[in-house]
Fold:
Amino acid sequence: MRILLVEDDADDAAFLRACLAQAGGRTVDLTRIDTIAAATEALAQGQFDVVLLDLHLPDATGSECVERIQQAQPEVPIVVLSGQGDEDYAIEILNRGVQDYLVKWEGGGRIILRSIRYAIERKRSEIKLNYLARYDSLTGIPNRQYLCDQLERAVTRAQRARKKVGLLFLDLDRFKSVNDTLGHQLGDRLLCAVVERLKASIRAGDLLARLGGDEFAVLLEDVAGPLEVEAVARALLACFTEPFDVGPRQLSVTASIGVTLYPVDTQDPLALLNNADIAMYQAKESGRNTFRFFTQSMQEEILRYHRVESDLKKAIADGQFRLVYQPQFGLHDRRVHAVEALIRWNHPERGLLWPDEFIAVAEESGYIVPIGLWTLEEVCRQLKEWERLRLPLPRVAVNVAAIHFHQPAFRRQVQQTLLRYGIDPSLIELELTERSLMEDTDAVQTCLRGLKETGVRLAIDDFGTGYSCLSYLRRFPIDVLKIDRSFVSDLDSNGDDQAICGTILSIAQQLGLDSVAEGIETEGQLEYLTRHGCRYGQGFLFSPPLEAHEVAELLRRHPPPVSLREADAQTA
Ligand code: C2E
Ligand code: MG
Ligand code: MG
Structure:
C-alpha cells in the first residue's frame, strides 16, 4: 500500500511511521512530504493509494489543503489528520469529499490501517456511484445529466469566444417495434451497435450522450454556423444506411434528428435540449430518416443556400452576371469623379437578383473568387469600351471580398488583368471591408503594400461598422474611407450618427485620406456632409446604380475633371 503522508511536524510523522510499520510491516510503503506544493507534485508523478493529510501546513491550511489535493488527483482517497480537540472541524471536513479522519497520537497501528482501508473502499464506491450518475450503464457513454452539465459549460465558453454551440437530438425510428418483436436483449444489442457507429462518425471534441431509451444527443462546440451542424447531421444519418449486425441477424434501422443552435435558436442553454427535441419530432413528421432545424427560418435558409450555391456554379459559365455602376460626385464640384461597380445576377428562373441574395453564399462557398475575377475583368473591358467611345474616364471602384483579398494570388491577378487590358491602375479603386483588414494585421500590411505598388487605389468600405483601430489605419497605405450608409441615413435626426460622421471625416482629414459618403438620400444629409468636409458622395439623391450606357450619357453631361489626379491635387 503506497501512502503519501503530508505532514510538516517531524514528531507526528515519526509516530505515524512507527505505528504503520508495526501493524503493516512490509506491505506499507510510506512517503513523507511537508508542503502541499511538494505533495501535488508527488501526486502528479507517482501513484498513491491514499493521502494522509495534516491541515496545518506551511503553504496551506484547513480546507484549502483538501481542495489542492483533490485538484491534483481527484481519484485519490484522503484521510485527514486532526489535532486533539480539532474533531468538530475534522467532521465538518468530511463533508467536503474527505473519506475519513484520524486524531493524532490516538489509537495504534491497527486502527490507523483500518481507517485507511475503509477510506480507500469508500472512495472506490464514490467513484463508481459518480460514474453511474453520469454515464449510461448499457452503452458506457455519458448520460443526460452529464450532457446537461456539459451543455451549460459549453454555452458559457461560447459566449466568451463568440462561437456557436450545436445540439443534435437523435431518435431511432420505430425502435419500439424492434423491442416488441425481437425482445429487449436484441434491442439492447442494437443500441450498443448504433452507439459504436455514432461514436466513429463524430469528431474528437464532440460529445455523444444517451438521453434514455433510444434517444441520443450530440453536442458540438466551436461551431461557425448552421452548415457545419448540418454536415454532422448528415454524417449521423449516414451511419444508418448499412444494416447492423446484431447477434445472429442483421437489422436495419433509421433515425430522425432535430437540430438546434445556440445562440441562434435561444439564449437559454437548457431550452436547447427542448428545441432539439421539438425539431426531432418535426423530422419524424416529415417522413423519418431525416433531420430538421428547430426554426423554420433556419430550415429555409439552408434550403435557399443550397439552391443558390448550385445555381452559382452555372451562373459564371453562362454569363448570368452583369455590372451596374453608381456614380460618385464631388461634393465641391458636382462632377462625376468615379463610379462603383455593383454586381447583378440575371437568374434564369428567379429574375434579377441583388447582391444581398447571393454574395454571402458566394463567400461561404468560395465562388466569390471566380466572381471577383470576373468583376475585375468586366470593369476593365468596360473602361476600354468607354475609352473607345472617346468618353472621359471615371475611376471605377470594385468591391473585393475578404477571402479573395487574403489569397496570395490576388495581387498578381489584379496586376495581370490590368496589364492585359492596358488599364491605367490609378483608375481602379479596390474597396476592402474593415473586417478583412483587421484579421491578421501583419499579413494584411504586406498585402496592401503589394497592391499599392501596382498603382491601384485602396478604399475601406462600410467604414465605421467593423472594428476600426486607428493605429492600424495609420500603418495601412489606404487612400479612401467610405462612410457606411447606416451612419448617413440617420444624419438628419440622430445626434450620435452626426457625431460619428463628423469624427470619421476629421480622422480622414488628419490622415490625409479621401472620404466618400454612401447612401446620401436627402439634401439635409448632403448639407451636413459638405459642411464637415466630406469630399465625395454616392447615393440615390444623385443617382441610383446605372447601366453602362447610362453612365456613358452621364459622363458626356457631367464629365470628370480632365485629369482625376489634377482634380484631386487641386482640392486636396
Ligand atoms: P456596398 O459596397 O456598400 O455598396 C453600396 C450599396 O448601397 C449598393 O447596394 C447600392 O445600390 C446601395 N445604395 C447606393 N445608394 C444608396 C442610397 O442612397 N440609399 C440606399 N438605401 N442604398 C444605396 P447593392 O448593389 O445591393 O450592393 C450591396 C452590397 O453587395 C455592396 O455594398 C457590396 O458589399 C456587395 N457587392 C456588390 N457588388 C459586389 C461585387 O461585385 N463583389 C463583391 N465582393 N461584393 C459586391
Ligand atoms: Mg462597396
Ligand atoms: Mg459600402
